[in-house]
């Protein structure tokens, strides 16, 4: 375990490195007050707490204000309200220009990132964005509003339904099916097969569903914590270069249910059947019960195989946790709804 003094030293060293990294790319800095955060953006509803800074004497200067917190050392709200400075990836929030600027130490915002994000934003509401020629800088429009995760259950369900319907629009006749090796990784997983048996679902039916749903551009980390509600509309934020990719269309849809038991209950009890039927009409598979069960199980296996987790043992443990979470939801809420 690191000592308190050592952790403080590391934090201050990160701040110094962050400011140095910002300085080297100062040509991107417009006049104004900035908040600097690390690789993960601060929750936008907390930005209002910094409004007083924009009225300070430094408002007309390119003033760098590192805000950081050791997340385990504060209450969760405090950890969300601030971010530690991180020299590997820097987020600048400019109050005057209403822009969010993300600086990377190496070219990371590839043409593939641009292509997939641009294509997906044709159906999803998200910040307008541009990428510098050196592919090291991402500039986005600034949006503010409550995070969907903080809102009541009925509102969360309302917007998740809308976003799922919009995601389904991304499926086109040109969308390619899932690669055989990707499908094989899911269907040969022992935990997945055990869960299918638990709900008396034939493996061939599961394969049939998963093979029918095409691959589309994917955000990679959709969840109610990455959705802002602004003027009765949703805004999808946190488009990370390492996660934007092509995945099966069900991946982003099921990501919303990862941490929200009320949303999972709604999925199991049929609250999202209208959206499932919209997907059903695209893929041409008739058994809605099998779709309702197979997709969350497939997501649990696929999610844990693609996340940047430390090692295989943790991946396997996470996979079991997510599968068990869904299985428990079906056992608790879905028995009466089995058709």
Low-confidence stretches: 37-87
- Strand order, sheet with most strands: 2-1-3-4-6-5
SSE arrangement, N to C: HEHEHEEHEEHHHHEEEEHHHHH
- Give the helix level as a range of percent: 40-55%
Give a brief rundown of this model.
Helices cover about 45% and strands about 15% of the residues. The chain is α+β, with helices and mostly antiparallel strands.
Can you describe what's shown?
The structure is a single chain. With 339 residues, the chain is of the alpha+beta class. The protein has 2 domains: 4-105, no CATH class; 148-337, Aminoglycoside 3'-phosphotransferase, Chain: A, domain 2 (Alpha-Beta Complex), CATH 3.90.1200. It is built from 13 helices and 10 strands. It has helices at 4-24, 51-54, 76-81, 111-120, 153-168, 180-187, 190-198, 203-212, 250-255, 261-269, 273-283, 288-306, 312-334; strands at 32-37, 62-66, 90-94, 99-103, 129-131, 137-141, 215-218, 227-230, 233-236, 245-248. A 6-stranded mixed sheet has the order 2-1-3-4-6-5. Strand 3 (90-94) and strand 4 form a beta hairpin. Helix 5 (153-168) runs parallel beside helix 11, helix 7 packs antiparallel against helix 12 and helix 10 crosses helix 13 (312-334). The chain is globular.
Give structural attributes.
2 domains, alpha+beta, single chain
Ordered list of secondary-structure elements with their pairings:
Elements: H1 4-24, E1 32-37, H2 51-54, E2 62-66, H3 76-81, E3 90-94, E4 99-103, H4 111-120, E5 129-131, E6 137-141, H5 153-168, H6 180-187, H7 190-198, H8 203-212, E7 215-218, E8 227-230, E9 233-236, E10 245-248, H9 250-255, H10 261-269, H11 273-283, H12 288-306, H13 312-334
Parallel strand pairs: 1-2
Antiparallel strand pairs: 1-3, 3-4, 4-6, 5-6, 7-10, 8-9
């Amino acid at each position: 375990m690191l000592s308190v003094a050592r952790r403080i030293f590391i934090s201050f060293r990160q701040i110094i490195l962050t400011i140095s990294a910002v300085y080297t790319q100062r040509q991107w800095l417009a006049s104004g007050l900035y908040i600097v955060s690390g690789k993960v953006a601060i929750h936008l509803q907390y930005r209002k707490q910094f409004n007083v800074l924009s009225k300070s004497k430094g408002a007309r200067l390119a003033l760098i204000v590192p805000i950081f917190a050791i997340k385990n050392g504060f209450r969760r709200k405090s950890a969300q309200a601030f971010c530690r400075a991180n020299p590997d990836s820097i987020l600048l929030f400019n109050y005057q220009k209403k822009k969010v600027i993300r600086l990377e130490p190496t070219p990371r915002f590839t043409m593939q990132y641009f292509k997939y994000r641009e294509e997906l934003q044709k159906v999803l509401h998200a910040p307008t964005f541009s990428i510098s020629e050196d592919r090291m800088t991402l500039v986005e429009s600034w949006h503010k509003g409550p995070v969907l995760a903080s809102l009541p259950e009925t509102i969360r369900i309302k917007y998740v339904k809308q976003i799922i319907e919009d995601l389904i629009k991304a499926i086109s006749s040109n969308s390619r099916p899932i690669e055989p090796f990707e499908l094989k990784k899911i269907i040969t997983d022992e935990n997945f097969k055990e869960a299918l048996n638990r709900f008396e679902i034939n493996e061939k039916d599961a394969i049939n569903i998963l093979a029918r749903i095409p691959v589309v551009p994917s955000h990679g980390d959709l969840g109610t914590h990455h959705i802002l509600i602004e003027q009765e509309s949703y805004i999808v934020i946190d488009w990370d270069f390492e996660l934007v990719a092509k995945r099966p269309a069900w991946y982003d849809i099921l990501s919303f249910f990862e941490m929200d038991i009320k949303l999972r209950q709604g999925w199991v009890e049929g609250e999202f059947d209208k959206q499932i039927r919209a997907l059903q009409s695209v893929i041409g598979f008739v058994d809605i019960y099998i779709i309702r069960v197979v997709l969350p199980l497939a997501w649990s296996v696929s999610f844990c195989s693609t996340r940047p987790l430390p090692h295989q043992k943790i991946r396997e443990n996470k996979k079991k946790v997510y599968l068990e979470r869904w299985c428990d939801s079906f056992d608790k809420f879905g028995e009466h709804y089995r058709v």
